[in-house]
Every structure is written in C-alpha cells, then in structure tokens.
Specification:
alpha+beta; 10 helices; membrane; transmembrane
Length: 310
C-alpha cells in the first residue's frame, strides 16, 4: 500500500521536530545548570537552576530514545532489529544509528565486541572452576549388569572396567577445557566402539560442546571437541598438508592442478573429520584426469589421504 504523500511529509517533519527539540533540551539544560555555580536572572536560587537543568536533561533523554519514523523501503523486521541493536549499543546516538548506515555499522561492531568480551568472561569463569565442580554427581554413575546388560554382554566385566576408567579420565580431561562449561554426559559411543578393544567415549557439555574421544586420544591427553576438529581441517596448515601429501602420491607431482572452488568437508563413519579437494593431474598416457583427494584427520594427528577419479 502506498503511503499518502501528506502523511510521509508529516513523518519527516515530526522526526525533524524531535531532533530539534532534543538538541534544544540537551544543550539548553546547560543554561540553568550554570546557575548552580552562580545564581542569575530567573534562577536566583541554585536549587531552581539544578531542578530545571535536570528536567531538561530528562526530556532530552526521552526524546533521544524515541524511534524515528520507519522508511517504507525498510522492512518492519529489519527496523525492529535496528531499534533493538541501537538502543543497546549506540549510546546517545540512538536516532542517528537507526537511520544512518555508518552509525549502524558502528553499533554492529560494538555488539560483536561486547559478545566476544562476554564469551571471554564466560570462558575465564569456566576455566576458573575446578574440574570436579564442572562434573555433575550422577554423570559418572557406573554401569551395572542390571541396568546395562548389553554393555556387559558385549564387553565382559574387564572390558566394562576399562570403559569406566576411560569415562572418568575423559570427563576430567574435558572438564579442564575452556570450551566446556560443565560436563552433563559421559558414555561409551556404541556406534564408534567395537568389542573387545576399540573404545570411544562420548562427552557432552551443558553448553552443547561435544567430544568423541578414542582410547588412544584419552591416553595421550588429547581432548578435541567436534568444533575443534572441524576448525582444524578447515585451517590453512591442514589444507596445505593435504595438497602436499596428495602431490607426493601422484606419478607426476608437477602436473597437480588444484581447483580453487572444488573442496568441501566431511565426517567419516568413525567420526573423523576431513576435507575433499578437487584437482586435475596427468596420468601415464599424458592425459589430464579429473580427480578428488579425501584428506582425513586421524585420532593420532596424522593425515590419511585417498585419491579417486571424479
């Protein structure tokens, strides 16, 4: 629906009036405020000057927080987002922030800085907590034949004892990590474990940080979350190692031609994270063959590379 021109003009005039009154009240408040130092004219008493100045500041502050009229080109949802963002992060520039792109960007940057600062404080507070305090009393409740017959049937008493030892070590190891605010769950990961020897422990934190830890990783004291693993395979060092390792496996390494946009990430059946890289390379007949390398970050920190044609 098209807004009548008269209404649009009145909205602009109202915004201009509010801006003008805000300026008058805020700056005008300093006139009676000067009477607090030395009474003069109508402000023969310091108290009168202080009260008038206070009322002017209050009126100006109320006007500063009054949202301007929403332009027709901006959707209501976006306008509401701007108002909420600018109220919290634009200080005294609220009205300018809502309307001005540059001021809005400043508010968005401030919001990001505040968010990072808050996250840093939360992590510092979590790190200050002892591991014992971050593990709930029932988290390490032992498995029993009565409640967990399948586990005992698959692993036997000695296997279950190994699992219990790994659960405890994993819980305390994860509790020491800044990214985990509190340990909520520590269980054997059935789908990633296989009797009699391959054990993987699953740990979940209250802030939803998740860990799948193999027996070897727990033994080495390596406690990487799923986010950690995902970030590791996306990082430049891993990508460079993937490219270099792939080249070394080719018959003609110098013919390696990596595609800039032909890459992605994956998680294999064992929960290991990795990346795929598309490339062309020359075969024994001198032809360029389109291929793909799958580089997987293994629990021992090594890279497993598989190459196949696309």
């Amino acid at each position: 629906m098209v807004r009548p021109r008269g209404i649009a003009l009145r909205s602009v005039e109202l915004d201009t009036l509010v801006d003008g009154l805000t300026f008058v009240f805020v700056l005008g408040a300093f006139i009676p405020l000067s009477a607090v130092i030395k009474p003069w004219g109508p402000f023969k008493r310091r108290r009168i000057g202080g009260v008038v100045a206070l009322l002017a500041f209050i009126a100006g502050g109320m006007l500063i927080q009054m949202p301007p009229e929403r332009p027709a080109a901006i959707a209501q949802a976006e306008w509401d987002r701007r108002i909420a963002l600018c109220r919290e992060h634009a200080a005294g520039q609220f009205r300018d922030c809502v309307r001005d792109t540059a001021e809005l960007k400043k508010a968005e940057q401030q919001a990001d800085e505040d968010k990072r600062a808050k996250l840093a404080e939360e992590r510092a507070a979590a790190a200050a907590k002892s591991p014992e305090a971050k593990i709930g009393p029932s988290v390490l409740k032992p498995y029993t034949k009565k409640d967990d017959p399948d586990i005992f049937a698959a692993w036997g008493p000695k296997g279950v004892q190994r699992i219990e030892d790994l659960r405890k070590t994993a819980a305390y190891g994860v509790a020491k990590q800044d990214k985990c605010d509190a340990v909520d769950l520590v269980e054997i990961a059935d789908q990633r474990s296989k009797a009699p020897s391959r054990i993987t422990i699953y740990v979940q934190c209250h802030n939803e940080a998740r860990y799948f830890l193999t027996q070897a990783e727990i033994g080495r004291g390596v406690f990487l979350s799923e986010d950690d693993r995902d970030e590791a395979v996306k990082a430049v060092p891993f990508r460079n190692a993937c490219s270099e390792g792939t080249q070394s496996m080719l018959r003609y390494p110098s013919s390696y031609n990596q595609h800039i946009f032909g890459s992605g990430t994956f998680t294999d059946d064992d929960g290991n994270h990795g990346i795929t890289v598309d490339f062309d390379a020359q075969n024994g007949f001198g032809n360029k063959i389109p291929q793909v390398a799958q580089c997987t970050l293994m629990p021992d920190g090594k890279i497993k590379i598989r190459i196949h044609n696309r």
